[in-house]
Amino acid sequence: MSLGISVNEAALPHVEELCVRADELGVLVEEVGGATLIDAGLEASGG
């Protein structure tokens, strides 16, 4: 049963904003093999 809610679609604007503000937020954004990886605390300082 589908409720018509997509977690991915709902999260996308937030992820895009995170990528735009990566330096300010202390996260690292990398493109690897066609995927976008966001490090918010493993190697990055995080926020």
Secondary-structure topology with pairs:
Layout: H1 7-20, H2 22-25, E1 28-32, E2 35-39
Antiparallel strand pairs: 1-2
Keywords:
single chain, 47 residues, alpha+beta, two-stranded antiparallel ribbon, 2 helices, 2 strands, 21% strand, elongated
Give a written overview of the molecule.
- The structure is a single chain.
- The chain has 47 residues and is an alpha+beta fold.
- The protein has one domain.
- The protein is built from 2 helices and 2 strands.
- Strands 1-2 form a two-stranded antiparallel ribbon.
- A hairpin with a 2-residue loop joins β1 and β2.
- The model has no long low-confidence stretch (mean pLDDT 92).
Concise summary:
With 47 residues, this protein is of the alpha+beta class. The chain contains two helices and two strands; from the N terminus they run H-H-E-E.
Strands of the widest sheet, in order across it, are 1-2
The percent range for strand residues is 15-25%
Low-pLDDT stretches are none
Number of helices: 2
Our Rg estimate from Cα atoms comes to 13 Å
Form type: elongated
How many domains in all?
Answer: 1
Biggest sheet descriptor: 2 strands, antiparallel
Structural class: alpha+beta
Q: How do the SSEs run, as a string of H and E?
A: HHEE
The tally of beta strands, per DSSP, is: 2
Q: How much helicity do the residues have?
A: 25-40%
Q: What is the arithmetic mean of pLDDT?
A: 92
Distance between the termini: 37 Å
